[in-house]
């Protein structure tokens, strides 16, 4: 029951920024990784890429007291990463605007962001945003993964 409640809570948080797949699809991706967690889910946020059809849900980042969990959503196979939350040694922020051609030759503009978290010299996590509310999304990322981790 706890995992089901976590999945529903995560879906509700992701809906703030992007449409979510059906509960069954979401559960198929999340349940295996959540069943391995020995801690409670504290925060979560989406990673959203801009593809030729518009924004797409790339992955879901789930934060616990000690872990950063990234569940990849855009792959047909199941893929996820567990990282020690306190392994973050650097935050890199990249912000820009991008426009694509929509239906009827209309131009659609998106606020874009990439936040790269360096864990080791050879490993990083990249979190993406494409949408219309970048500042709220950035705030949710920083609330979940505060920069005080660098101290």
Describe this structure in words.
By secondary structure, the chain is of the alpha+beta class. The protein has one domain: Pleckstrin-homology domain (PH domain)/Phosphotyrosine-binding domain (PTB) (PH-domain like, Roll), CATH 2.30.29. 25% of the residues lie in helices and 43% in strands. It is built from 3 helices and 7 strands. The chain has helices at 2-14, 23-36, 134-144; strands at 43-51, 54-63, 67-72, 80-84, 90-101, 107-120, 123-131. Strands 1-2-3-4 form a 4-stranded antiparallel sheet. Strands 5-6-7 form a 3-stranded antiparallel sheet, with helices on one face. A hairpin with a 7-residue loop joins β3 and β4 (80-84). α1 (2-14) packs across α2 (23-36). The model has no long low-confidence stretch (mean pLDDT 93).
Quickly describe the structure.
By secondary structure, the protein is α+β, with helices and mostly antiparallel strands. It has helices at residues 2-14, 23-36, 134-144; strands at residues 43-51, 54-63, 67-72, 80-84, 90-101, 107-120, 123-131.
Quaternary state of the chains: single chain
Work out the helix count.
3
CATH second-level architecture: Roll
Q: Rg from C-alpha positions?
A: 16 Å
The CATH topology turns out to be PH-domain like
Q: How would you describe the shape?
A: globular
Considering the protein shown, what is the CATH homologous superfamily? Pleckstrin-homology domain (PH domain)/Phosphotyrosine-binding domain (PTB)
Mean pLDDT: 93
Just give the CATH class.
Mainly Beta
Beta fraction of the residues?
Answer: 35-45%
Describe the main β-sheet briefly: 4 strands, antiparallel
Distance between the termini: 37 Å
Q: SS-based structural class? A: alpha+beta
- Domain count: the total is 1
The count of β-strands is 7
The ordered H/E elements are HHEEEEEEEH
Q: What strand line-up does the widest sheet have?
A: 1-2-3-4
Taking pLDDT < 50 over at least 5 consecutive residues as the criterion, the unreliable ranges are none
Helix content: 25-40%
């Amino acid at each position: 029951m706890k995992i089901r409640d976590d999945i529903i809570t995560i879906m509700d948080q992701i809906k703030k920024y992007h449409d979510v797949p059906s509960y069954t699809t979401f559960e198929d991706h999340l349940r295996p990784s959540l069943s391995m967690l020995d801690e409670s889910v504290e925060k979560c946020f989406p990673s959203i890429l801009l593809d030729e059809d518009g924004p797409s849900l790339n992955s879901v980042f789930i934060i616990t007291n000690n872990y950063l969990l990234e569940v990849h959503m855009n792959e047909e196979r199941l893929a996820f990463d567990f990282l020690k939350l306190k392994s973050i040694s650097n935050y890199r922020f990249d912000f820009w605007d991008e426009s694509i051609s929509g239906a009827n030759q209309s131009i659609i503009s998106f606020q874009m962001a990439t936040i790269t978290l360096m864990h080791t010299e050879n490993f990083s996590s990249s979190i993406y945003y494409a949408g219309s509310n970048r500042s709220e999304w950035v705030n949710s990322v920083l609330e979940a993964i505060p920069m005080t981790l660098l101290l």
